[in-house]
Amino acid sequence: LELACNSGVRALYFDSNAGDQSQLNQKLMEAETLNLAEGDGARIIGLVSGVKLAFENPMGINQSRQAYQTALINHCGFMPKSMLSHAHSGWVNVALSIGIPGVCFLLALHLSLLRVGLKHISNPYAFTLVIWILIWVIRTLFDATLQDQILEIQAFMLALLLGLSVQKYAL
Less Cβ crowding at N or C end of the chain, within 10 Å? Predict the structure, then answer.
């Protein structure tokens, strides 16, 4: 969590050929500062810190898309230098927003829809429903797909595929 509060960290390494401690200290002082505010480093920091923040706030923060930012500011006690907008994981964002019970509810919803799809698996729409849910649940681990219009698209597709999966008459 401290890396999420502070944007840069001194690159640390061990060099067995450094000689004495003063030479090693000099190399550490000359080492480049890693910019964690850009690239995949920030995404990983966002994910790891988001999980920790979710366990610090098991009932969620404020039911908004800024829950990660709010939790990070509350934890750091100041405005972090590297301000990520979200944790880069839909499940972590949901946990920060509506809490761990909200994540359990959303997973239960997906599992119940998966069960319906598996029950009618011979129907091509049900097969598509099963694949859609599996891909969506896995993708949401690594991307913020449970917000804005993406969430609306998911809800529409799940409802459409569910309805077509259990229909008695072919279209």
Answer: C
Tens-digit pLDDT profile for residues 124-168: 999 999 999 999 889 888 877 777 777 788 889 999 999 998 886
Q: What secondary structure, in 3-state letters, does the chain show?
A: CHHHHCCEEECCCCCCCCCCHHHHHHHHHHCCEEECCCHHHHHHHHHHHHHHHHHHCCCCCCCCCCHHHHHHHHHHCCCCCCCCCCCCCHHHHHHHHHHHHHHHHHHHHHHHHHHHHHHCCCCHHHHHHHHHHHHHHHHHHHCCCCCHHHHHHHHHHHHHHHHHHCCCCCC
The answer to whether the beta carbons of residues 42 and 4 sit under 8 Å apart is no
Residue 78 has pLDDT above 80, yes or no: no
Task: Please report how many Cα atoms fall inside a 13 Å half-sphere around the Cα of residue 108, on the Cβ side.
Answer: 6
